[in-house]
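To: structure desk
From: M.T.
Subject: fold request, one chain
Message: Could you run this one when you get a chance? Sequence is below, nothing fancy, just the single chain.
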Amino acid sequence: MKKNLKVRILTAVMMLLVFIGAALILNRPDPDAALSSAQKRTFAVAKVTDILRDATPDTWTEGRRIGEQQLEVTVLTGKHKGAVLEAINYLNAYYNVDAKLGTRVIVRLDYNDTGDLYVVSIPNYDRSSVLIIAMIAFAILMMLVGGKQGARALLGLMFTLLSLWYILIPLVLKGASPIFATILIAAYTSAGALLMLTGYTKKTFCALLGCVGGVIAAGIFAWIITTLTPMNGFNMSEAEELVIRASDSPLKISGLLISGILLSSLGALMDTSMSIVSALHEVYEQNPSISKKQIFRSGMNIGRDAMGTMANTLILAFVGSAFNLLILFQVYDYPMIQILNSDMMAIEIMQGIAGSVGIIVTTPLVSTLCAAIFRLKGDKILSR
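Reply: Done. Structure tokens follow.
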């Protein structure tokens, strides 16, 4: 037990050092790089302290007010904290930050020709406080219900998100293959998350290999479909913006579509792998004499149930993201041939199916691994 704890601690330290080293190298600032337009802008949180002129409700926007508001705001953050400024807040049906007394908003600040500070625009509400409270509530509920396992799951989630932001995205921006980089990060983050959740055990090893295998299967399937259709990163709605903004970087846009599919399916694949492995490990613990064939058969039976629910989860998630598009198809009464062949719908369908294929492949793969590894005795591979 002590030996296993030492191995777990050593592994966690090594993965943390790898993360820190990679993040520092990939995010090292370029001293010769010019500031981007976003970096040159100044944003701050402000509070509406007076409404000098208000907008009126409109009938066709379900009561949303349009027009303009003349506001007095007090800056709450940044080097201009305490400044009281007047601002014109433009409202329309789609970009609508409807301010009231006491509303906290994000303001963009700049200086006019005479050097006086003024509010350029009010792009958003200040949602940070509510979101932070929501995340804290989520973390508390996770730990209250899940106990130590819940706390480990939170650490694993944080590790995954930080790895995506500080390693995967910088890698892709520096010209690495998006697909290869995503598979690499999927293996790395899965290992970290599973190690934090279950420790250095046979369960972790089987779940990790099953998850990575499912990710690779989803990637291969998506690559085949995108090649035959054809589809690539340039079909995505954000492609034009990426081409414009990243034209001077070695970013490879063509692989971003498959990378997004792999990331979207990673959580479901990890869940499916661990669900099957945990159930099979419990079966094996209760009956150590069970044969490999029986372990495999049990894994397939368990996996078939997980397969159906997880496939529904993935496909419905992608359908939900395209719900507005589906409504528009109904409104304009598009023919089915146009619906199925549109870029957006083809991408949504392919994303759901590719992730589901990964889950389907994960089930026999994990069952086979468990049948082979759980029967190994002693220290031939890992502790139980």
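Reply (cont.): Residues 378-384 have pLDDT under 50 and may be disordered. Let me know if you need anything else for the meeting.
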